[in-house]
Design brief:
4-stranded mixed beta sheet, 4% strand
């Protein structure tokens, strides 16, 4: 075994230990506080809803533990156990042109890995979500969505992988990683621009927001904050789930504001306006652009690192591969290498929570903070979100601040008149 083998095993085990400890700690903490609703939430969230959220969190945490060990076992088997190499050997025995053979190998491998994780998606949807009243999905609809995803993988994934592998093969002894990064950035910007109009409607129905008080408030908010969009839409989220949400999507002039129909039905016009103001806060503070730049920068560093690794034989042999080709280097980069950088995730979560505070402050400047507070309380209640997560777990995982801290921050803004 090489040093990269030991590093891979060490970081994988360390990640499992940390995740398992935080998972169990979070479940214990939630269970410890399930008998009483925190005072700041008592007006909207009753004890029954609070205990439902605790049970829902426990069910998801239990499934997460199973997925944690299963994914680790699969990764070890596919790398050190030789699984990836066996699949590649099958494709090497074919008479397909090398570039198309390697493209097919990568697509088939990811398709196989997605099949392995499918049972957990089924359990999550038809057992946990069903048990707690959130699932609106049918087996036929899930199958249809899955086939659509696979079709998209072929339509988008095949030319993408082919282009990347062509660059890698053509410039493998040069700065292929830089050319690949330039292509990747351009591809993602085009995809981000095209997603609202061409991809999202494949899975959901988007209807322009109907005339009325909600639309009037939304348009007034957009006008006074100087935000331009390519439309305000309501998505049929209720066709698959009882959860509610709102988001921005798109790039440049092709931006859209999307509300889940479940959210529109639950919140008052003032609350919808406040939720939108929060989302606008992300845009006005440049959070989306900053996250894109950070992501592109991390990918550049990662590809540069791969550019060096791909020239080292220990990179392949240390992770269970005998073949030393560009496609194998790319596969290991996408599957095994991320394990060694698991510590980046909590750092990104910390930055995301800071962004949420800034977006909340923006919402409090342009709407009454009390409406965002009441909207969040309803969303916590209706989505069965835990009001008492373990602080360590939340700090490590959550992209949004814990409910009590977030509500406390909004109340302080309310008192200061911001």
């Amino acid at each position: 075994m090489t040093w990269i083998t030991y590093l891979f095993i060490f970081t994988l085990c360390l990640n499992i230990i940390i995740e398992l400890w935080l998972n169990v700690k979070n479940q214990f903490h939630i269970n410890l506080h399930k008998e009483k609703v925190p005072a700041e939430f008592a007006e909207i969230v009753d004890l029954e809803a609070h205990q439902k959220a605790a049970a829902y969190s426990a069910a998801k945490l239990q499934l997460t533990r199973l997925v944690l060990f299963f994914d680790a076992a699969v990764l070890v088997f596919m790398t050190l156990g030789g699984g990836f190499q066996e699949i590649y050997n099958y494709w090497l025995a074919t008479d397909i042109v090398p570039i198309w053979r390697d493209t097919a190998f990568l697509i088939a491998t990811f398709w196989f890995l997605s099949l392995l994780s499918l049972p957990f998606s089924i359990i999550s949807t038809f057992k946990i979500e069903e048990e707690f009243g959130f699932n609106k999905m049918t087996p036929i609809k899930m199958l249809t969505d899955l086939l659509k995803q696979w079709a998209l993988m072929l339509v988008i994934g095949v030319p993408l992988i082919w282009a990347v592998l062509t660059i890698m093969n053509q410039f493998f002894d040069q700065a292929w990683w830089l050319y690949t990064w330039i292509f990747w950035v351009g591809f993602n910007l085009v995809l981000l621009w095209a997603y609202p109009k061409w991809i999202a409607p494949i899975f959901n129905k988007f209807t322009p927001l109907a005339d009325g008080e909600v639309k009037n408030r939304v348009e007034s908010l957009l006008a006074r904050t100087g935000f331009e969009s390519n439309g305000i839409f309501v998505m049929d989220g209720s066709s698959r789930s009882g959860h509610g949400n709102a988001y921005f999507t798109g790039f440049g002039k092709n931006k859209r504001i999307v509300f889940f129909d479940t959210l529109i039905e639950t919140l008052s016009p003032e609350e919808v306006e406040a939720v939108l103001a929060h989302e606008l806060g992300h845009f006005k503070h440049g959070h989306i652009k900053k996250m894109m730049v950070q992501s592109f920068a991390m990918i550049l560093v990662g590809l540069a690192f791969l550019g060096w690794l791909a020239q080292q034989s220990f990179f392949y042999t240390g992770l269970g591969m005998t073949s030393q080709t560009p496609v194998v280097a790319l596969l290991l980069f996408l599957t095994a290498i991320p394990v060694m950088f698991f510590f980046i995730s909590p750092i990104m979560a910390y930055k995301s929570r800071k962004n949420e505070f800034e977006a909340d402050s923006f919402a409090a400047e342009h709407t009454d903070a009390k409406y965002l507070i009441s909207a969040l309380l309803k969303m916590y209640r209706d989505n069965a979100s835990s009001l008492t997560p373990d602080p360590s777990y939340s700090a490590y995982h959550d992209s949004h601040p814990p409910a009590n801290i977030r509500i406390g921050h909004l109340k302080s803004l309310q008192k200061s008149g911001k």
